[in-house]
Amino acid sequence: VFGSFIRSLGVHLTDAETREQFLGRSLADCMAIVERFRGTPAPPGSLERYMADRDRVLRERVEPVVGIREVLETLTIPFCIASSGGHDKMRITLGATKLMPLFEGRLFSATEVPRAKPAPDLYRASVDALGVAPGEAVAFEDAPNGIAAAKAAGLWCVAVPNALTRDLDLSQ
User: Fold this and answer.
1) What residues pair up with 109 in beta bridges, in sequence order?
2) C-alpha 142: how far from its chain's center?
3) 3-state per-residue secondary structure call for 72-128
């Protein structure tokens, strides 16, 4: 959906370039990047149209990771979601997957911190809120920006395998 949105604004990137530029970033940061590519602000109403399309697609297509409910229900340690997405987006995806009840009061968004991923602010705020030391926390990340944020915050990080994380050097 995001690729179609930026193409409608005259920004033409490959799917790989789109993922590399935007995945794991806040919507505000994504819009700033889009506007840099365009050289002008996005037209009025375009962001709202994108969000409506995105939310519709999320409601229709998002499915939980197989077995995740069982894992979450057995955890005896604090856990949360620290997302580049806003609270509305998290509530839509967690609602679609029926996982929202497991995360009430444990949603942290990049909209709540001064700097979004890849800055460490979101992870620092979430571990502080949970009362966990960064070195005792583990982040599961599917995007290079999130991995960079978790590492910068001092968290352990598990890179969820996908096309963006497969070839990363995580030894640093």
Assistant:
1) 83
2) 8
3) HHHCCCCCCEEECCCHHHHHHHHHHCCCHHHHCCCEEEHHHCCCCCCCCHHHHHHHH
Question: Residue 43 gets which letter from DSSP?
Answer: P
107 phi and psi, to 5 degrees? -110, 125
pLDDT, one tens digit per residue, over 77-136 is 999 999 999 999 999 999 999 999 999 999 999 999 999 999 999 999 999 999 999 999
The pLDDT of residue 132: 96
Cis preceding-peptide flag for 118 (omega within 30 of 0):
yes
pLDDT in tens, 8-40: 999 999 988 888 889 889 999 999 999 999 999
pTM comes to 0.83
Helix orientation angle between 46-61 and 87-96, rounded to the nearest 10 degrees: 20
Mean pLDDT, the chain, integer: 91
Cis ω on the peptide bond leading into residue 44 (within 30° of 0)?
A: no
Q: CA–CA separation, 117 vs 122, rounded Å?
A: 7
Q: How far apart are CA 37 and CA 41, in angstroms?
A: 10
Pairwise CA distance, residues 110 & 112, whole Å: 5
